[in-house]
Amino acid sequence: MSALHESPVLTVLSRLREDMAAARTHDPAARSNTEVFLAYSGLHAVWSYRIANRLWNAGLRLPARLLSQVTRFLTGIEIHPGASIGRRLFIDHGMGVVIGETAVLGNDVMLYHAVTLGGKSRHGHARGVRRHPFLDDGVTVGAGAKVLGPITIGAWSTIGSNAVVTKDAPPRSLLVGVPATIRPQTPETAESARGGTLEPEYYL
Hints:
It is built from five helices and 15 strands. By secondary structure, the chain is an alpha/beta fold. It has a single domain, classed as Hexapeptide repeat proteins (UDP N-Acetylglucosamine Acyltransferase, domain 1, 3 Solenoid), CATH 2.160.10.10. The strands form three sheets. It has a six-stranded mixed beta sheet with strand order 3-6-9-12-14-15. The chain has a five-stranded parallel beta sheet with strand order 1-4-7-10-13. Helix 3 (about 40-55) packs antiparallel against helix 4.
């Protein structure tokens, strides 16, 4: 069957399988699709967001917000239904993650727990104005990091644990520290940044 003619049910099922495959790729602790489907709150939050986002875009703003709040209560993850999220987002553990209304995430983004994609000022709240970050494809954000304001993080960048990012970054950046600065990215430094185990000089 052509992808152009897939039924809505098949499309939903293919997305579920895709999300579970992404989870198993990112998380070595995942042992089976059944475990991922039943026990991964990050996926449950993303699946609920997709329903809420459809409601939001259909003009059903209150039901969308109520669904997002129920999901927050159940998972500890708050995704505003107005956010724009690409495919294969994986939220590892997830507790404390917040994604703001005008945030935009590309494909293959990964967030660890306690990440905030938020605004940085009470000003500029006019309707239709972007207040939250844009994370391009493949960006990874380490545990506890705060990415604030209408900034752009280039594709395949890594944001270190507990970093506070308030400025744009080009593709394949490694952002660490408070406030975050750009460091050379290698496979070793990127992995260390995600786990919060960089050497102390990276936080100066």
